Amino acid sequence: MYSKYLISRGMGAWENNSALLGCEIRGGDALAENTFTVLNLRLPEFGPRGHQMSIMKMPPSVSKRRFVIADDQPFMRKAVRKILEAHPGWEVCGEASDGEEAVEKAKYLAPDFVVMDLVMPGLGGLDAARRISEELPEVQVLILTLHSLPDLVKAAREAGAKAFVLKSESQRRLVSVIEQLAVA
Fold first, then answer.
1. Is residue 91 within 8 Å of 115, Cβ to Cβ?
2. 50-86 tens-digit pLDDT
3. Model pTM?
4. What domains sit in the chain, N to C, each tagged with a CATH number?
5. How far apart are CA 75 and CA 145, in angstroms?
């Protein structure tokens, strides 16, 4: 579990998150593309000497993209997860059933994207998008909703959402929008 999480983050994030992961992480310079580096992970299960692992950073074309999915409907979260995880290198690292949970998961999991519904109980998608965009500007929020009113699209953009996709649109449209955002 730890190595999968660690491989998907940059060296600075590994060192910054060592307390969160319950281990000590030591490494050299940040990983350069297509290079190997050795990390010493001191996890309790490996004893006082720790565990060494070699990690190769993937080139950008196959680098990981991490997602949090926020929708109050479990079947919708499952469907979006299936679409995203069918794409090579994409991983859903968390799910949320309301806006407040989406904000907390985004803070804790540091995804690249939050794919979020507009209408959810408690904190709605617009307010959650605004908080995520203000508190975590590196996280891109994508609104995925049934509602296509022009005022909602405008409000979502003003709240910091980078894209707006209708649930009725094709799976390819969702993937295409994410790919465009990833290279922007």
1. no
2. 444 444 444 444 468 999 999 999 999 999 999 999 9
3. 0.66
4. 2-58 (no CATH), 64-183 (3.40.50.2300)
5. 14
Please tell me the distance from the alpha carbon of residue 92 to that of residue 66, in angstroms, as a whole number: 6
Task: Give the ranges where the chain is alpha helix by DSSP (H).
Answer: 2-7, 11-16, 18-21, 74-85, 99-109, 125-135, 150-158, 171-183
The rounded distance, in Å, linking the Cα atoms of 40 and 26 is 5
Tell me the longest C-alpha to C-alpha distance in the chain: 59
- How open is the CA angle 17-80-14, to the nearest 5 degrees? 10
Does residue 92 carry a pLDDT above 80? yes
Contacts of 90 (CB under 8 A, 6+ apart): 64, 65, 66, 67, 84, 178
Considering Cα of 72, then 142, then 106, then 82, what sign does the dihedral take? positive
Q: Token pair 């997602």 is at which residue?
A: 67
With a CB cutoff of 8 Å and minimum separation 6, the contacts of 19 are none
